Amino acid sequence: MLNDTSLMSGTSACPGCPENIAMRMLSMALGKDVALVVIAGCSSVTQGLAPKNAYGYASLNIAFAAGPPAASGMWRAYKRRNRDVTVVVWAGDGGTSDIGFASLSGAAERNEDFIYLCVDNEAYMNTGGHRSGSTPHGALTPTTPEGKSGNKKEIPFIMIDHNIPYVATASVGYPHDFIDKVREAKTIRGFKYVHVLTPDPYGWLFDPSRTAEVAKLAVQTCYWPLFKWKDGRIEVSPESLHCLKKETRRPLKDFLSIQGRFKKIDEKGIEDLERYIDELWERISLNLKR
Amino acid sequence: MRKVMSANEAVANAVKLARVGVVGIYPITPQTTVIEKLAEMKAEGEIDADIVRVESEHAAMGVTLGAGAAGVRSFTATGSQGLLYMHEMVWWASGSRVPLVMMVGTRAVGAPWNIWNENTDFMSERDSGWIMAFASNPQEAFDLVLQGFRISEDERVFLPMMVGMDGFILTHMKTNVYLPSQEEVDAFLPPRRQPYVIDPEAPIGMGNIFPPVEYMKLRHSIHSAIQSAESVIKEIGKDYEKISPFNNYRTLNVKYRMEDADYALVLMGAWAGDAMEAIDELREKGINIGMLRIRYLRPWAESEIKELENVKGILVMDRATSLGRGGPLYLEVKATVRNQVKGVVTGLGGVLLNKEDFKRIILKFLKEAKEERSDGVEWYYPAEVEKVELRNPKDVE
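ok -> structure tokens follow
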């Protein structure tokens, strides 16, 4: 099953890195005819030092906000050259929800023909774990030592509101779901947005051997929903169906207590997070495919 | 074919004749009529380029760079705030060694808002590793943009090239422009060449982390490429004569009445026209002054500038300034020659000078030169500005 052409030896990623897991899954889904645009982030570094590169894909590294524009130019260039290439923007959550948001929104509005993959570790992990617009309420980061105040920006919903052909969420804890969604995205013309949760042992403060487990707990506790949006409706993945009813959700504390970044959160903070999850699922329920 | 057109329209025609494949566009005055013309050409089926209407100048360069990296000839245009907003990507393009061409319609930079001409925006990119040309009339705007694709795609260069032109004064000025035929341009400009293409056929990674020595070597190679571009530009300029009646591209910069000149005026851009008129009238009064018009800021043709050492005095006029210091051209010339150099900063934010202003500036300079005190920088205001009271923050009403 492993397609080792996309990720070769020599990566400088940390032990337990969820991004390399995601990279492997991406190549299982897409095969070889892929060109990557990698914006600033851990992945700019984990490729290893030039002139060598641990990514087997043709890849253009580029500044934070320039991923979607570069991909817009690239897919058009391949089309003009009669090359059948899937262009993928590989972007972190800071590059997606903060500094690169205008260019993401612009490319979505133009319905450019590429896959935008947001690899969400919920902070600027490459600089040292600083808070981003995607950091959850209550999380400790070096720039929010008291715990972040305010919820995670809901980029998948914002992308749904752009009325693009395809939006999907995934978790590295559920490879089949992630791979299926990326494969489906490849078959669709126009702008495809895929958002994968990638729990980071060093930023979230858990043991590096437990990356997949934390990525599963995020889904089981309904903190992170697995769904896809297509043809104007949301379809919840089987792994997340239990979240539609509040009483079948696994307790949120199972997800919070396994990580160090929530160690200062109080009861009120937990209630705030639970309310956020309730509202998240209410919103999903309202747009369900029936 | 000869046709009356503005410099912006001439630029659009150069892009068309160069068979550009992808154009990233975002509006900013005074460049907008370039992209309007290209959009119109596309709508009417005159070009088949992909016109990508992006959400910012940062993205305009992103699209242009992405298309170039994936193997297609690309172009964009901007100026002023747009160029500053694009700044990060300007550097990314040269660091990636991706050939492409950008037109810059120069304009003052805010705050405060001002839409009129000034070259400080263009000058602020001089350290970015681009080939930088500056046009003086619509014909030259056309010629430089067309030649730009070949210069940029020459394997001895492989760098992006920007062509500046004075906002409104040149971008919107109409004159007769000679356009070579498509067949002639096809013969002059070969299919795109570039150092690498991002393509799964032969996957490479571009732009990941370079360790210190490797990074320094990369910057060094860009430095060398800019320097070697000097002979490439001359070679291409000579070859351009096969498709154009203009034969003044054998040098990077342009001399006017310098053969017997005792004094030299150095400047760049559209106001060279007023300067030449002033020089003609002063010559009639027996004042031997000539002009060197800088057409290429990068490469800086040191040997051409060094020839100025033969004159008794040098006056450099800048429509730009490095605040607290002096005009960028003045600083460049001063670093090249041994002579005393006087700098004049003027024309900022659209301040207009006429022929009489040039004569006033030159006559004052000649008086100072004779007294051997023609050094330093003067801020010049046109004759009708009688009193200069500077505005300071404490004066806010």
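The longest strand of chain A covers residues 86-92.
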